[in-house]
Amino acid sequence: MKKEFNKEDRRTVGIVGVPIWEELQKYVKKGDTIIDLDDALPDVSVEDSYLPKTYCSILKRVTSNAITLAQAGRLHLVLADVGEGKCDGMRYIASFLRGLLPIPLVEVRNTNSTGWGYPICQSQHPLREKMELIVDTVSKPLNASIKLQKTAPVCGFWGVPPSDFALLELFPPDTHIYGWTRCMENKTPANHELELEVDQGVPTVFFSQNFCQRSALAFHLARKHQGLFVQMDHHLTKSIRAMVEAFIKFNVS
Amino acid sequence: MSEKILIDCGTSYTKIYHIDQRYYEVIPSREFRQRNRDFRILMATGYNTWGMGEVQVNELITLAEGGLRLIPEESFTLLDCGARDVKYITMDRGKIIRMDWNTECGAFAGQVIELLINYFDINPRELPPDSEKIPVVCAVLGMTKMFDKIAEGVPYPRAFMGFLKGIAWNCYHLVNKPEFLYFSGGLCENKAFLHSFPCQVRPLGRYVLLEGLKSFYEDPSRLKPLKETVSKRTAYDRHSSQ
């Protein structure tokens, strides 16, 4: 028996991917709390029992977060992008996750094509801070106290938010963000053309999570633009770290 | 007064460059850790470094820097086959255009080869060069296939040579099948292994990473970008060292 969302008093909505902004704001205006199920939550461990051992770390995290929080009564609705703005994996998972959850799961498809711009991606902040700001602003506006200054790129990071943000600490100041993360900030997660664009001549690391279909694109683009292709699973490893360090050392002037 | 050295502390062996006396030394890593000599380790690289050295530089950077110092061409591919792992860089006019560090499928290639040479008590120079290649996933899993061949009646020198060819084939494909390949690491001394590659191989010896450190020692300005981007400890390091 599923709990009815509308009968809950203090409600928490878990989002997956980048649902449509206007839809999200309806929940925000009602006073609902929004949490991002793609994020690592401090009190939720990722279980291997729901999905194959060799599978995308982000989707394993989403699944564990949703099931653990819903079973504990701390999550009341899941709003999951299952369209081209997220990935095939989430669409398959949503098809059976609904049956495992004691709460409703609403499938959405964000096909918004009106770009909001991506000033965070091009700003002066360190790469990790930029990534945290972009993730934070999926459901809420950027804090007005944060000033963004456009910089010229000295290095590029292409890809999705990694499962371990320690990777981002290796990059130099004025690293610009490309790929799906830039589409996130632009509020157009299904904009494939924008995802393919990079600044010519900027040494760029093309990143994908292990077992992600985007790996093919990251690999291809790295070859095309003479960038570095790296994949990561749960955590930053010594060899990934060394490759990124070496690439920056010799290729970023 | 402490003796100033640079070290490449690998899984099996530590390669040392004595700065004042200008000579190289190779000793087992386990012995290096037990030595009581008064060393001042100015710079360190290698898998077994573990906090040693006033400056630590990762192995891919020292491999690339060592290659730039030793190789006359502007474009080259340099493969380092160590005891524990396999890594390579392809450089073009001072920039890295490809690299990889295969810690899984290349796992323990060098160490397994050395163990098998000792186990069979065999001289690599006496291995039959016309042996058939044994397809192997990695050195560890490849051993089972090699021993299967021996159980089927294949003489062990021939089976071992086939195993070496399988490892070399994997390395060749890892580095994108170049016509010419520079080679680094302890296996430079194993001619049978070098001849197992289906391309020309030029061995540079086992001190290439140390040459990279020497380059940084002699010209510290080449370390400047490292100080800005690399030397800082990340959350990963902080977590790992707890």
Write a structural description.
The complex is a heterodimer of chains A (253) and B (242). Chain A is of the alpha/beta class and 253 residues long. Chain A folds into two domains: 9-108, Rossmann fold (3-Layer(aba) Sandwich); 127-251, no CATH class. Chain A contains eight helices and eight strands. Chain A has helices at residues 21-29, 57-71, 88-100, 127-136, 180-185, 192-196, 214-224, 238-251; strands at 12-16, 33-36, 77-81, 105-108, 155-158, 175-178, 204-209, 228-232. A four-stranded parallel sheet of chain A has the order 2-1-3-4, sandwiched between helices. In chain A, strands 6-5-7-8 form a four-stranded parallel sheet, with helices on both faces. The longest helix of chain A is centred in the first third of the chain and has 15 residues, at 57-71. The mean pLDDT of chain A is 94. Chain B has nine helices and ten strands. Chain B is α/β, with parallel strands linked by helices and 242 residues long. Chain B has two domains: 3-65 and 207-240, Nucleotidyltransferase, domain 5; 74-203, Nucleotidyltransferase, domain 5 (2-Layer Sandwich), CATH 3.30.420.40. Chain B has helices spanning 29-34, 59-70, 109-120, 139-151, 156-174, 191-194, 208-218, 224-229, 235-240, and strands at 3-9, 13-18, 23-28, 39-45, 55-56, 75-81, 86-92, 95-102, 180-184, 200-203. Chain B has a five-stranded mixed sheet with strand order 3-2-1-4-5. A five-stranded mixed sheet of chain B has the order 8-7-6-9-10, with helices on one face. Residues 228-242 of chain B have low confidence and may be disordered. The A-B interface holds A 164-166, 169-172, 226, 228, 235-239, 241-243, 245-252 and B 58-61, 64, 85, 87, 89, 91, 94-97, 99-101, 103, 225-226, 228-230, 232, 234-236.
